[in-house]
Design a protein that fits this description.
By secondary structure, the chain is of the alpha+beta class. The protein has four domains: 74 residues, no CATH class; 57 residues, no CATH class; 41 residues; 97 residues, Chitinase A, domain 3. 56% of the residues lie in helices and 13% in strands. It has a four-stranded antiparallel sheet. A three-stranded antiparallel sheet has the order 2-1-7. Helix 4 crosses helix 6 and helix 7 packs across helix 11.
Length: 304
């Protein structure tokens, strides 16, 4: 009786573990004649195998599964159409990337190792990208066309995008906070008012790293400055000394040596930029429509 009980209990436990294993690695999606398991989803999600997660916007598992389904659909379409790339094309693409980075073959392999990628894994990634590019060229890009009328219309409707930023050539003196800081600032202001050049004063008194070059900060876009500092700088006349500006670094005196107003770029100067903007927009729209067509003609069953 004892032996029979042990056998029954053992069979029961075996059944429990089999059921448990099935639950852990169950099918979460069927795509055509292929499946995606829960284990595959979890591994891909944790490692971000698709390289699509963003720091500020993480996809849910359901959303990630949707992207995995789309990838499998594309892979199936590649096989169906027999899209391939030759070994020569593959090596040429890898060599082109290496030269763009300005690396020797050994340095290139070292870079891949530092990223946790073997040369063979990288070669497979490049192959997949080339095949996808060829498929998209046939299925999506061949339908794209940007007309001159569209370019002109976009330019007229988005002129603010094609204005040069307002800039100032800026110099500054910075004095660290301390017991004699205010007295030193007052002395600098008096010397400047007496005719001593700002550059000379910066070299003599400034504690900033730009002191050796006379406090020159170069051409600075006003929009990149802190709002309160931007308000001060935008009101300065050429050669005028700013009021004392205080921040966590210390006390600052600014002087504007030059100013460039915002200018609307001519259509001819931005035509190609607009063409690329519209082309990308068209591509995204056509790509999504193409994906929907793939989904419509393929059996897909999501079981997550």
């Amino acid at each position: 009786m004892k032996l029979r009980s042990i056998i029954i209990i053992g069979l029961g436990l075996a059944g429990f573990f089999l059921i448990r294993a099935e639950l852990v690695d169950r099918i979460v999606a069927v795509v055509g004649d292929e499946v995606i398991t829960l284990r595959e989803l979890e591994q891909a999600y944790q490692n971000d195998s698709l390289k699509i997660q963003q720091e500020d916007k993480k996809l849910s598992r359901a959303e990630y599964l949707e992207r995995m389904i789309e990838k499998k659909l594309i892979e199936q379409e590649v096989k169906r159409q027999g899209v391939t790339v030759s070994a020569q094309e593959l090596e040429q693409a890898i060599e082109k990337k290496r030269k763009e980075l300005g690396l020797s073959p050994e340095e290139f392999r070292s870079l891949l190792r530092a990223q946790g990628i073997t040369m063979e894994e990288y070669r497979q990634q490049v192959r997949e990208n080339l095949v996808l590019a060829r498929l998209l060229a046939q299925e999506v890009r061949s339908e794209l066309e940007v007309s001159e009328q569209e370019i002109v219309a976009y330019y007229n409707q988005h002129k603010d995008e094609f204005r040069t930023p307002e800039r100032v050539k800026l110099y500054h003196i910075v004095i660290g906070k301390g017991g004699s800081s205010r007295a030193k600032l007052n002395h600098i202001i008096k010397e400047y008012q007496a005719g001593v050049s700002f550059i000379e004063l910066a070299k003599k008194y400034s504690e900033g790293e730009e002191a050796s070059r006379g406090g020159e900060l170069g051409w600075v876009e006003l929009e990149r400055l802190k709002p309160e500092l931007r308000q001060i700088i935008s009101q300065l006349k050429i050669g005028e000394l700013s009021p004392v500006y205080e921040d966590e670094v210390g006390y600052h005196l600014f002087m504007v040596a030059g100013r460039e107003k915002s200018v609307l770029l001519a259509l001819e100067q931005v035509r190609e930029q607009i063409r690329q903007i519209l082309y990308r927009k068209q591509f995204e729209e056509q790509y999504l429509r193409w994906l929907e067509r793939l989904k419509a003609k393929t059996y897909i069953d999501i079981r997550l």
